[in-house]
Amino acid sequence: MPNDPGHRGPGERLAALGLTLPPVTAPVAAYVPAVRTGGYVYVSGQLPVADGKLPATGKAGGEVSASDAAGMARICALNALAAAASAAGGLDRIRRIVKVTGFVASAPGFTGQPQVVNGASELFIEVFGEDGRHARSAVGVAELPLNAPVEVELIAEIRE
Q1: 121-155: per-residue pLDDT in tens?
Q2: Alpha helices, H only, the chain
Q3: CA distance 68 to 57
Q4: Which pLDDT score, from 0 to 100, does residue 160 have?
Q5: Do 77 and 119 touch, CB atoms closer than 8 A?
């Protein structure tokens, strides 16, 4: 879907994609899903949990294809938006996505982390247009919680 240059807000764009924000995933350790401070929301790493479970486990470039991992990064992004919206007072209170970090559980020799994390980045751009373009890191790691293939965290600026 091309970026909407009109005045639709993020909530309307999300709906136009046929998506809704899922319930905020409960933390699996001693942290909170998101923290608002000043004009920003910092979202903890979000796994690709959909309907209470991971769609697949394992390493990108191994048990999980890069394409499937990118789809799971998109789920992570949706979960991150749910956490950010919860802390911000609604999705339309998020002004822009500032920074995204994607962690990709990677099989030996796998170097496609940027393409995997594009699954998240592209969703943010679809939902926020130019305000969804962000600084980013895509990092390969040995393991992630619950043997998830990908995890995404973000920093978002809030409308005052």
Answers
A1: 999 999 999 999 999 999 999 999 999 999 999 99
A2: 10-16, 66-88, 113-128
A3: 11
A4: 80
A5: yes
| Residue whose token pair is 């980045």 | 121
- For residue 5, tell me if it sits in a domain: no
- 14 belongs to a structural domain: no
Domain that holds residue 146: 41-158
Its pTM stands at 0.93
Count other C-beta atoms under 10 Å from residue 43's C-beta.
26
- Domain annotation covers residue 105: yes
Residue-by-residue DSSP string for 15-32: HHTT--PPPPPPPSSSS-
Looking at residue 132, what DSSP letter applies? Answer: G
Angle in degrees, CA 13, 14, 20, rounded to 5: 155
Nearest Cα residue to 147 out of 107, 110, 120, 118: 107
Residue 1: inside a domain: no
What is the number of domains present in the chain? 1
